[in-house]
Amino acid sequence: MSNQTIAMWKIQSTKFLTGKTIVEVRYLTDQEMNDLGWYNKALVIFFSDGSYIFPSQDNEGNNAGALFTSDPVIPTIPAI
Asked: How many domains, in total, are found in the chain?
């Protein structure tokens, strides 16, 4: 991946995430998981402006993904 592409995604991600306030954290519901055609549930993080994020195992959205953290007590938040 080119440095230009990396820089563009850094700018876009920073713009989207900076200053957001988390208001809810939950796993996908069974219906949401089924609507995505997935076999596992990802954690969803909701923000006060109505936006949200959740991890996928790849860029095509083929299944739920895990989140790695900096917390030694919970180093990974798994897809379930």
From this structure: 1
20-74 pLDDT, tens digit per residue, is 999 999 999 999 999 999 999 999 999 999 999 999 999 999 999 999 999 999 9
pTM, two decimals, is 0.91
Cβ atoms within 10 A of the Cβ of 32, count? 15
* 6 token code pair: 């990396």
Spatial contact of 52 and 27, defined as CB atoms under 8 Å apart: no
Could you tell me if residue 57 is inside a domain? yes
Residue 49's domain comprises 21-77
Residue 2, CA distances (Å) to 8, 10, 55 in order: 10, 12, 23
